């Protein structure tokens, strides 16, 4: 169990360090009410939840095949 937790912690640290690629300050994870991370996360979580199951499957397949998915992208940016 300890090994799994250590691996998960390593992956979380890796992900946090890469938030800058999306314009998100990694330190903003600490501010759950106002932090950019949570705004970014909520934006994409809502986008996924609003997509129907069939639409998600089409999107997922296109992503896997490295096809254009611009029609499926949100109409606004997370920080607008």
Brief digest:
With 80 residues, the chain is mainly α. The chain has one domain (2-72).
List keywords for this structure.
80 residues, mainly alpha, 0% strand
What does this 3D model show about the protein?
By secondary structure, the chain is mainly alpha-helical. It has one domain. 54% of the residues lie in helices and 0% in strands. The chain is globular and about 40 Å long.
Whole-number total of structural domains:
1
Going by helix content, strand content and strand pairing, the class is mainly alpha
Low-confidence sequence ranges: none
How many helices does DSSP assign?
Answer: 3
Largest sheet, described in full?
Answer: none
Mean pLDDT: 93
What is the global morphology?
globular
Q: How much helix is in the residues? A: 40-55%
Topology:
Layout: H1 2-17, H2 36-50, H3 53-64
């Amino acid at each position: 169990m300890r090994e799994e937790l250590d691996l998960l912690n390593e992956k979380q640290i890796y992900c946090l360090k890469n938030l800058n690629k999306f314009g998100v300050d990694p330190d903003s994870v600490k501010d759950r009410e106002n932090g950019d991370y949570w705004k970014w996360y909520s934006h994409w979580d809502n986008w996924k939840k609003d997509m129907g199951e069939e639409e998600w499957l089409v999107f997922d397949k296109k992503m896997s095949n490295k096809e254009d998915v611009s029609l499926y992208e949100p109409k606004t940016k997370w920080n607008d």
